[in-house]
Amino acid sequence: MSNRISLRQVEPEAINALVTFDKYLQAAQLTNIQKELIKIRASQINGCAYCINVHTKDARKYGETEQRIYLLNAWRETDFFTEEEQCLLALTEEITLISKHGVSNETYDRATKVFTENQIAQIIMAVISINAWNRIGIATRMKPALDSK
Prior knowledge:
single chain, globular, mainly alpha
């Protein structure tokens, strides 16, 4: 499997627009761990190996544990994630898979109990951002580099 076009080379303005969008998200009220959980979980759902690789490394830099990263795709089956994180992950999954069932009232209402409106808006925007990056990564066949030991 070979790489395809580089959007950064072919359409730099489009990539710069997404980078600017991500700069807005850097200032969001969400913690770095929350942002990385969104990015990892959406990337797992979408099957973007490049983004999973980048964001699991970033999460570890911010203090996330290996165990929680390993269990992220089965977060409902553990008690390792806080109520806030569970709401965040449920929203991430439903927004990422929005064509299946939309975002349920149950998930949204649960989120309103632990997040402010601004935080919910920021979660939605963070999920939109990583889904855009996932689609770029998959469509252009971006591959993670193997870490040397």
